Amino acid sequence: MWCKWLWGACLAVGMSVNASGAQAQELGKFVLAGWSKPITEITNLLAEPDLGFFKEEGLALEYVPGAGGGDALRNVLSGQADVAFTDPGSFFAALDQGAELRAIYDIYPQNVFNVVALKGSGIKEPADLKGKRIGVYSLSSGTRQNLQILLQQAGLTEKDVTIVVTGVLNFAPLIRGQVDATAATDTGLALARRRGLGDVQVIEVAKYLNYSSDLFVVRESTYQAHKELLRRFVAAYRRSAEWMMKEPERAADIAVRRAIDGQDRSLNAEIIALRNRSSVSPLTQEKGLGTLDMASLQAAADAYHRLGLISRKIDFQKVVATDLLPGTY
Fold this sequence. Notes:
Blueprint (H helix, E strand, L loop, with lengths): L4 E2 L24 E3 L9 H4 L1 H4 L10 E3 L4 H9 L5 E4 L1 H9 L4 E8 L4 E6 L14 E4 L5 H12 L8 E4 L5 H5 L5 E5 H9 L5 E5 L9 E6 H6 L1 H20 L1 H11 L6 H14 L3 H6 L6 H13 L23
Parallel strand pairs: 2-3, 2-4, 7-8, 7-9
Antiparallel strand pairs: 1-3, 4-11, 5-11, 6-9, 6-10
Helix pairs in contact: 7-11, 10-11
């Protein structure tokens, strides 16, 4: 089916040999459930047929696209995938509902969400949003959740603003004056600027609460039973991310062939640069890509609880795995 994007043959149960010639552990079928279709943002994954980072670890990677982080987690919880590429909000919600999950890797430790207003609107900081009409992708999207967090930092709630569902093409209502500001992501803003968006005022959520935008999450049972397999997956992903940082121009070229939105090479380069920046933080520069920032993620979970987005407090240390990254075992 179109929704299953297969790179190479799935691994049959049995023994395989990795690039170094070492015999690999028995592996079953390995599937990564994404929140998106194969888009430029994940070019380091799309480059697998060209560069073989996962193949070198004895993995034949299958990518199942989704429509949001909730989709990715549903595919994992239903047994259709082994690892979910998902956002913290969806992770918190699943935990709140009783799912037994573990976060194993911080894909983008930087918060990529923002609220954008036209110059001259008078909106320069969160407090200025009071009484305004604000666009969000959907009522279940990260744009709404991060808007709520931003409002909370200013002592406001959604009752102090008017939420308008705009869909993903949310900058058109802003330009037409149907909303006073719109919640978006860094890549969404980059695309809007390419399409003629004028001067704007950008309020970055990261300046108020900087926490991860996306994580790799697995079922507790997968973590307990398949640590070696997950270590190989994490090692391959980290190398792919490092490659995209070192060779962004080649990544932009590959996106033209591999990404469904990759026709504009210069836009590819801009999006790849944004994702490269969001993949690093002071903590990852010290301890390596993928290191989970426990303090910021705990602060985010606490904020979600205060907002009523989840019904109970989450002790983040109990729902992460810190022993899968290279150098931690």
